[in-house]
Design a protein that fits this description.
alpha+beta, about 25% helix, two-stranded antiparallel ribbon, 3 helices, flat
Length: about 110
């Protein structure tokens, strides 16, 4: 008994042109900002676009997300509490005033 010969068939829907048209209509964030008027914000625009427009108007007024840390190098640090370490290790102190501990191998 001989098997009937079947030609391979491919069932697909070609959406390439449709997808390309959709992607061309979507502007990336920076392109939206450059196309959008800098003088006025669009009410329907997303928040990221509006923030980018504000940044382009005056880049020095960017809001800070982090609190700046204050460091005074002249301030004395608290006395260190050195913990006991295994005998094959030892503490060494680095820095100008020997205040920065490090652990090294003997």
């Amino acid at each position: 008994m001989v098997q009937p010969q079947k030609t391979p068939e491919c069932y697909q829907i070609d959406l390439v042109d449709t997808l390309i048209r959709e992607q061309q209509n979507i502007l990336p964030g920076i392109e939206k900002v450059l196309v959008q008027s800098i003088e006025q914000e669009e009410e329907g625009a997303d928040e990221e676009t509006n923030m980018s427009v504000k940044w382009l108007e005056d880049p020095t007024e960017t809001p800070s997300r982090y609190e700046s840390l204050k460091f005074d190098p002249k301030e004395k640090s608290k006395p260190l509490e050195l913990k006991e370490i295994p005998p094959h290790l030892k503490y060494v102190f680095l820095g100008e005033e020997k205040t920065q501990p490090a652990i090294i191998s003997n």
